[in-house]
Write a structure and sequence with these properties.
Elements: E1 7-12, H1 15-25, E2 33-35, E3 39-43, E4 49-54, H2 55-62
Parallel strand pairs: 1-4
Antiparallel strand pairs: 2-3, 3-4
Length: about 60
């Protein structure tokens, strides 16, 4: 079996600003996004995900 990366999670300070930044940089369409209160997931090609997680919620999740 070949290892592969399916999900990349980035902890961000400001979820709203970071969502706009990554959407613009990667030219992501708005219909390929799932969002919740503390994170946003971008659905990429080949079943990959880019998840932006607000730093305060991310820190609580990993503790």
């Amino acid at each position: 079996m070949n290892p592969k990366v399916d999900i990349v999670t980035i902890s961000v300070e400001n979820l709203v600003l970071s969502t706009g930044f990554y959407r613009e940089v990667f030219a992501l369409p708005k219909d390929k996004i799932s969002s919740c209160e503390d994170h946003v997931a971008f659905f990429l090609k080949r079943k990959m995900f880019l998840v932006l997680y607000e730093r305060s919620g991310f820190t609580q999740m990993i503790e």
